[in-house]
Design a protein that fits this description.
The protein is built from 5 helices and 5 strands, in the order H-E-E-H-H-E-H-E-E-H. It has 161 residues and is of the alpha/beta class. The chain binds zinc ion (ZN).
């Protein structure tokens, strides 16, 4: 396969992962900002998914990524480690989630929309690719960006009086 051909296939595969994260976001409580995250193992099998549930759980740490990482670790069978796994999330992770996914040793991060106000994977900071860290996941951002941003736009639009 040509380099262009394999790149196209990889992009399509990432879009499939983000579509799963979009589906996870759609399950968010109506009070919660719709962000969804899904963890896949090295073979591409889904381990866990979650939506942001800060309002639903009254928990400041209940971001989609943290909830999905916890659930994935519980079923993955290597303690807290998620080595070789991929995290797909609809929005660029914040500092907490970027830290959590790095600590979980996620191998690859794929995200949808960029978050210029709080993003910690390139926008405001780049926590996951800090060269001082031992573990640095591979990253791809901006996958199905407009679909992911549309979820948020719809939510915030409905919030306005
Ligand atoms: Zn977060």
């Amino acid at each position: 396969m040509s380099a262009a051909g394999s790149r196209g296939a990889a992009e399509r595969a990432d879009e499939t992962l983000i579509r799963a994260a979009i589906a996870a976001a759609a399950a968010a409580d109506p009070r919660d900002v719709p962000v969804g995250a899904v963890v896949f193992d090295a073979a591409g099998r889904e381990l866990a998914r979650a939506a942001n549930a800060r309002e639903a759980l009254g928990d400041p740490t209940a971001h989609a990524e943290v909830l999905a990482l916890r659930r994935a670790a519980a079923v993955h069978g290597d303690g807290w480690r998620l080595e070789g796994c991929t995290l797909a999330v609809t929005l660029e992770p914040c500092t907490m989630c970027a830290g959590a996914l790095t600590l979980a040793r996620i191998g690859r991060l794929v995200f949808g929309a960029w978050e210029p106000k709080t993003g910690a994977v390139g926008s405001l900071w780049d926590v996951v690719r800090d060269r001082r860290l031992n573990h640095r996941p591979e990253v791809r951002g901006g996958v199905l960006e407009s679909d992911c941003a549309a979820l948020l736009d719809t939510f915030f639009h409905a919030q306005r009086p």
